[in-house]
Design brief:
single chain, about 170 residues, mainly alpha, 7 helices, elongated
């Protein structure tokens, strides 16, 4: 395979890793090369984006955890990141599903299947995390209200089997 990308020939091996030197000698790009080339080739598109970095909203919510004083406040933050609807986890799930659809349209069915598999795993994790936050709330309520029932009546005792097709969970 002959690579025609302009900076592939610029290597002088100074400061390069063994992998980079080996890949260059084999006329193969490294993963770093591929990422750098993609960033270069997409620069016009990415410069036109007016949205913040994807992880910034999660960083802001993580900082909020340091300000939390009560279980109710903790629950509000955890639900924003891990919960139903438009939480960070739900939106990441939707991103993976959309990436799978894009790969299918681009005739990359094996990559699409991998995105879908990870979306399904993320959906299963979302269910588990949802029940974890519900259990946390129930435990706190029982400690502060000794006459409270042992288990919350609104949630199941164990996580249900994941849906056949990964989808956003409906709001409770």
């Amino acid at each position: 395979m002959s690579l025609s990308h302009p900076d592939f020939e610029l290597y002088d091996n100074v400061g390069r890793t063994g992998e980079q030197i080996k890949d260059h000698r084999g006329n193969r790009p490294t993963t770093d090369d591929l990422h750098r080339w993609a960033a270069h080739d997409a620069k016009q598109f990415t410069d036109s984006l007016t949205i913040e970095d994807a992880g910034q909203s999660v960083i802001a919510w993580t900082r909020r955890l340091y300000q939390v004083r009560t279980t109710a406040e903790f629950q509000a933050v955890a639900t924003a990141v891990l919960g139903d609807g438009h939480s960070a986890l739900s939106e990441l799930h939707q991103f993976l599903e959309t990436a799978a659809e894009w790969c299918e349209r681009s005739h990359e069915p094996k990559i699409a299947e991998r995105y879908r598999r990870h979306a399904e795993q993320l959906s299963e994790l979302g269910y588990e995390l949802s029940y974890l936050t519900d259990d946390h709330l129930a435990d706190t309520y029982r400690r502060t209200h000794p006459s409270a029932p042992a288990q919350p009546t609104s949630g199941p005792a164990a996580a249900p089997a994941p849906p056949a097709a990964p989808a956003r969970r409906p709001s409770r």
